[in-house]
Amino acid sequence: MKQYYHCLGISLLILLLSACYEPTEGCLDVRASNFDIDADDSCADCCTFPELSLRFNNVWSYADTTVSFGLDTFYLDVQDHPFLIDRIRFYWSNIRLQLTNGEVLRIQDSLDISIAEAGDTSMTTILDDIALAEISSSSRTVQVGTVIPDGTLLGLRTTFGISDPTNKAITTSVSTSHPLAPQAGQMNFGSDLGYVFAKIEYFTDTMATDTMAINLYGSDFIRELSLDLSAPTVFVDGFNPTLVIEQDISRWFEGIDARSTDTTALKNQFVQNLTQSFLLTELLAE
Predict the structure, then answer these.
(1) Which of 24, 162, 234, 242 is most buried per CB count within 10 Å?
(2) Taking residues 265-271, what's their average pLDDT?
(3) Hey, is 86 helix, strand or coil?
(4) pLDDT at position 232 over 60
(5) Angle CA(96)–CA(136)–CA(246) in degrees, nearest 5?
(6) Contacts of 277 (CB under 8 A, 6+ apart)
(7) Among residues of the chain, what percentage have pLDDT more than 90?
(8) Which of helix, strand or coil describes residue 79?
(9) Is 5 helix (H, G, I), strand (E, B) or coil?
(10) pTM above the 0.85 mark?
(11) Which pLDDT belongs to residue 45?
């Protein structure tokens, strides 16, 4: 009889505990930043996913060595004339991640913008996969947007420049912190000409007080870039992926006469050079 009551008590206790237990909801997607291993049920739209960043490590190559890039250093042009770089900025768009299985990961964020065309203004929605990079130090990190990393990364695919309709965006239609917003030093020439894909500013000699500014804009200067890792790398679930890109600034200025005033020739040379200046070196999980 005692054993009977003992078993009955245990059964009642189990029933009582079961009745009090409430399953918890949480993110059950292992790729998410807030994956909850203790959750019982999947929540609705509560998962937050990692942010993709690009880290540009800027260098200058000489015949026998490579050094960190610096704005306080005079470099030599093709004529052995010393010149000083003041600032370089450029746009990348259509940023996507190529996987080894052939699939492509895209930025998940979207952006509503106003565009101007033929005197009319309209609203449109675009993928918010645009980055504005600035070369002002030896290293600079640019945050791009939300991705759902999954699989093995082969490389990066992106567009140097901005295509229509985004190129016709009204700069004030986006938040002031966005790359498409008005920038100091004029990175947009209005809806007819659009964005300046790259602005290269430098002092032409050791005595110059004003900079030479080369502006690359227009569809003729759009270029597609394909950068592959030397060794494909698996994404780490839940961590922010950072692509490390070595950018050789000396390649930008290869064959450039810094004292030349032929801006057309300079533009063509710069856009030819810059596509050869990037090297995807590493995928980090941060």
Answers:
(1) 162
(2) 96
(3) strand
(4) yes
(5) 45
(6) 247, 248, 249, 251, 252
(7) 80
(8) coil
(9) helix
(10) yes
(11) 85
